[in-house]
Amino acid sequence: MIALLISSAAGQTAPDFAQAEAMVNLVRSCYANRAQQVSRFPFTTIDHVQLAMPAGAEGVARGFYADVLGMNEIPKPPELAKRGGCWFESGVVQIHLGVEAEFRAARKAHPALRCADYDSLVTRLRSEGIQVQDDASIPGVRRCHIADPFGNRIELISG
Length: 159
Hints:
Elements: H1 2-9, H2 17-37, E1 49-53, H3 58-68, E2 72-74, H4 78-81, E3 86-90, E4 93-99, E5 112-115, H5 118-127, E6 133-135, E7 143-147, E8 153-158
Parallel strand pairs: 1-4, 5-8
Antiparallel strand pairs: 2-3, 3-4, 6-7, 7-8
């Protein structure tokens, strides 16, 4: 349908509105049938977020995620442990670090972690020499961005 309208707007062909309407009705019927199979809100929470890390840097990851952020390392299943990396949790929040052969840090995509004691954590990060970039771009939200030792962006939110 979109292609029909775009090609018409470009002066290439006249739109076939009957065909477009039939396509819209088909899509609606598919979604109506699917809605009966899946609840309207099929997800309850995010189980974990995975970030990439370079091979052999598990010690560096532990130093940051456990020692600096205060997360607990949790064991990976034996089959997955063979791949390297490590997993961390804090309450229901889990961050999995997986080894990526052609590692490249996630500088835009990022997890956003809501912090119970935001001020203390930010103070501790700064005392550890970690660059904390305050961000007041969302009214009423206290937040900042940091990077893990691999350059992965992490957002911290007060609350």
